[in-house]
Amino acid sequence: MAQSAKGELNYRCPMCLKRDLDLDLAYDKDKKEYYCYRCAFHGTEKDVLRLNEQFKEKYGRLKERVVDFGEDNEPPKFKPHKAGEQ
Ligand SMILES: [Zn+2]
Predict the structure, then answer these.
(1) Three-state SS at 47
(2) Cα 81 to middle of ligand 1, angstroms
(3) Each residue of 24-33: pLDDT tens digit?
(4) Measured in angstroms, how far is the CA atom of residue 26 from the centroid of ligand 1?
(5) In a domain, 85, yes or no
(6) What's the total number of domains in the chain?
(7) Domain for residue 8, yes or no?
(8) How many whole angstroms separate alpha carbon 52 and alpha carbon 55?
(9) Within-domain flag for 62
(10) pLDDT of residue 79
(11) Residue 39: its pLDDT value, please?
(12) What is the C-alpha to C-alpha distance for residues 82 and 86, in angstroms, rounded to an integer?
């Protein structure tokens, strides 16, 4: 393993994030990929960004509330949520 360094951007480990752990990835300049100190994750910047998109599905609607679940084959309707509202 080459000398570890931070990448240009500070990415979080997507695998650890799934387990609610917040760890920065290190960057291997020779292999041009990011890797995690804690778990076995390693991948290119593209891999990290793709996995981060999957993570957004879990919390992507955090600031919205369902107003109407609709019929079985209709998508639910959402409204933006403001802090302090129920
Ligand atoms: Zn990790």
Answers:
(1) helix
(2) 32
(3) 999 998 999 9
(4) 10
(5) no
(6) 1
(7) no
(8) 5
(9) yes
(10) 93
(11) 95
(12) 9
